[in-house]
Amino acid sequence: MQIKHGQVGLLLLVIMAVVIAVVMAVASRSLSDTVLSRQEKEGNLAFSLAETGVENALKSLRDGSVTTGTVSLSDSTGLVTGGYQVEVQTGYTLYLREGEVGELDLTNFSGGNITFSWTKKGDPSEDIGSCSEGSGTMPAALEINAIKNDGTVSRSYYNPSNCSLSGNNFSASVDGGSNYRSQTTYSPVNTAKIRLRTIYAGATVEVAGGGLTDEQMYVIQASAAGGDAQKEIEVRRGLDAPASIFDYTVFSGQTIVK
Question: What CATH architecture applies to the domain 91-214?
Answer without folding.
Answer: Sandwich (2.60)
